[in-house]
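A note from the maintainers: we've had questions about how concatenated examples are separated. There is no special marker in the raw files; a new sequence line simply starts the next protein. For clarity in this README we add a label.
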Amino acid sequence: KVEATFDKGVLKVTLPKVEEAKKKEIEVKVK
């Protein structure tokens, strides 16, 4: 399951790996 939140021009996407304990968060700043 991929979770994405958008707040104040910042898009944060959480990509859970095979191991749920290890999650990678990618922040994309929109101009």
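[label: protein 2]
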Amino acid sequence: MPVTVRAKGGDVLRFSFARTLIHRPCLDVERSDIDSWIMPGVRIMDARLLVFKPDCLGDDHFVRDTLIGEMLVSEQLKDALLATGDPGLKFVLPKDVWNIFWNEDRRLH
């Protein structure tokens, strides 16, 4: 969905973002290392390691996990998006999702 973003430094024209309407429980709670919950069994607040169920996407290419709210994409969609050369794309492996917020000693960056 293309939009114009107005910021202090100027406008960003033709900015695009995507939002999936498919929500699915892809996280493997038993194999993940979860530190705390916002609501137990409903929404995760913090985790040291996230492990996703194999083939949780099924035939879909773009879903949102119900427990963490992160968007998951298939390798096929990821490759197609990267082929566009868009510099604004960022893909993070499951093992690195929470590590973007925390140092090794569990303090915020």
